[in-house]
Amino acid sequence: MDIAADEDDPFEEQREKADNPMKRLFVEYGARNKTALTVGILSSIVARVLDLLPPLLLALAVDAIFLDSRAFDLWLVPEALEPTTRAGQLRLSAGLIAVAFLGGAAFHWTRNWGWNAFAQHIQHAIRTDTYDKMQRLNMDFFADKQTGEMMSVLSNDVNRLERFLNDGMNSAFRLGVMVVGISVVLFVTNWQLALIALVPVPLIALFTYKFVQVIQPKYADVRSSVGRVNSRLENNLGGIQVIKAANTESYESDRVEDVSGDYFDANWDAIGTRIKFFPGLRVLAGVGFVITFIVGGLWVITPGGIGPLSGDLSPGNFVLFILYTQRFIWPMAQFGQIINMYQRARASAARLFGLMDEPSRIAEDPDADDLVVTDGRVEYEDVSFGYDQEETIVEDVSFTVEGGETLALVGPTGAGKSTVLKLLLRMYDVGEGRIAIDGQDLRNVTIPSLRRQVGYVSQDTFLFYGTVAENIRYGTFDAGREAVIEAAKAAEAHEFITNLPEGYDTEVGERGVKLSGGQRQRISIARAVLKDPEILVLDEATSDVDTETEMLIQRSLDRLTEDRTTFAIAHRLSTIKDADRIVVLEDGRVVERGTHGDLLAEDGLYAHLWGVQAGEIDELPEEFVERAARRQARTGGDD
């Protein structure tokens, strides 16, 4: 039975593409853990067989020892070793029952070890594989997904698989062995009464089938609501400073209450269905016990039976049927829970494998060579790109940057500046045209070798939770302490770092929250210095700092860009006026190029942007103002 579709599932497309996810789970991951799986299966079988022995031995003891209604014949012991006295027979039966219990306990331990080891190893492997795949996907994939939703896949879905592989598989084998073993013993003992005892089985199967049909859409709603709760909490905790500054705690509390309420309603709906199902299942299973007790009891006290209920049953076998039927009830009652766990695990496996199968728009040639940078010459040749086929973001962009030169990209908001440089890093592949470094087409070189040679300093500085030194060393993990300090000095960061409570060992907090924007920016620059790349990309590296901090950062950037091919994006044109060349973009096209002086002399778009920043607003052409208003209306201020 397939999982009901969930219109709100952000990974529905990936889930629907997954082909036979549970089979893949066992073929691709189960094969790696065959030893643990084999131990779990064999131990489950032996443990359940040992569990069936005490009722058999008790039935024999009742008839042979206490009632003397049949000969004491214990098939587990050679006839020569069987005692002849009742006391001896009782001691032997008790000893074998004790051995069965002890052996069962031992095999239950190995069973639990096997299933837990199997589940834990797969949980670890599939979580790490999914994360590895996720971080290699294109950036546009992350633009469509919220962090909380992706966390739900890596956490909730993986954990749900682990629960099924451990508890579900364990219970399934226990159910299978118990049902087969009990059925065989009952049919061998008295096939007529066995048929009566098993009457509820088809009813339980039908009841369970209907339950699964009803519960699956409800679980789909629960999964979707969990993702929304995670996303809302992740967004709010990440933006706690904005919430406090805007005095919107009550508003955000209401929003969290709304999504949590949706989860409560969806989960309570599923719980309401589930708590009706299991008692109903117990009632059906209990019917077999009651019928078996009545009919078996009649056959014991009235040999030959009454009316249509004809049959004979010894007291020992009556005890056997009662004990086995009672043991039969709980495994049968778990049948629906196992199906339930399987369906939830299948949905999770479908999402995980669908995510793993997500195609990447950046296809790396298996025969690609490593990038070798000699001069650092970068060429853009008729480059065009769009995030989808309907809209082109960059169109026919061409320019060349010689090794060691600094090229600045400027233009109004939405011109495509950041996109042009993301193509250099192969965050995306060009749609048309070609980008080359020292004559090597970027599509023909390995992505790791490309990104090792290109340093990137973004306006959105991200620091990981850890120490200052760990964040500077990030990406150059084998760098020594002295190298870290030298990089910090080059980035004008050493002085403020030494004034921190623990110096370079100071914890920066989540996303570097304990540091100011300028401090975070300089640590990011120090990270690039330590990497010592051949090509440097500066994307608004000083956009969010004050004038004094900008001066310090700019001084460190000047040292960093010396003798290094550098690309710089800046809205503050004063920071790039000394660039070797400036390329002006508008609506994804190159409209001007030249030095700062040349572009001012042209009195075009660059000159007008310079005038805006110089406060000469009244002197700007009306046409420029109208175009700026249209761009803002179209882009909303996004590049």
Supply database-style keywords:
4-stranded antiparallel β-sheet, ABC transporter transmembrane region fold, 10 strands, 639 residues, elongated, Rossmann fold, alpha/beta, 2 domains, 6-stranded mixed β-sheet, 61% helix
Verbal overview:
This protein is α/β, with parallel strands linked by helices. The chain has two domains: 12-356, ABC transporter type 1, transmembrane domain (ABC transporter transmembrane region fold); 378-463 and 525-635, P-loop containing nucleotide triphosphate hydrolases (Rossmann fold, 3-Layer(aba) Sandwich). Helices cover 61% and strands 9% of the residues. It has helices at residues 12-17, 21-29, 34-66, 86-135, 139-143, 147-189, 191-197, 200-238, 240-245, 249-301, 315-356, 417-424, 447-453, 468-472, 481-490, 494-498, 517-531, 547-560, 596-602, 605-613, 622-635, and strands spanning 378-385, 394-401, 406-410, 432-437, 440-441, 454-458, 535-539, 565-569, 581-586, 589-594. It is elongated. Mean pLDDT is 80; it is low at 1-7.
How many structural domains in the coordinates? 2
Rg, Cα atoms, Å: 36 Å
**CATH architecture tag of the largest domain:** Up-down Bundle
Total of DSSP H or I helical runs spanning 4+ residues: 21
Low-pLDDT runs: 1-7
What characterizes the major β-sheet? 6 strands, mixed
Globally, the shape reads: elongated
Distance between the termini: 47 Å
Count of DSSP strands? 10
CATH class division of the largest domain: Mainly Alpha
Topology diagram in text:
Elements: H1 12-17, H2 21-29, H3 34-66, H4 86-135, H5 139-143, H6 147-189, H7 191-197, H8 200-238, H9 240-245, H10 249-301, H11 315-356, E1 378-385, E2 394-401, E3 406-410, H12 417-424, E4 432-437, E5 440-441, H13 447-453, E6 454-458, H14 468-472, H15 481-490, H16 494-498, H17 517-531, E7 535-539, H18 547-560, E8 565-569, E9 581-586, E10 589-594, H19 596-602, H20 605-613, H21 622-635
Parallel strand pairs: 3-8, 3-9, 6-7, 7-8
Antiparallel strand pairs: 1-2, 1-4, 4-5, 9-10
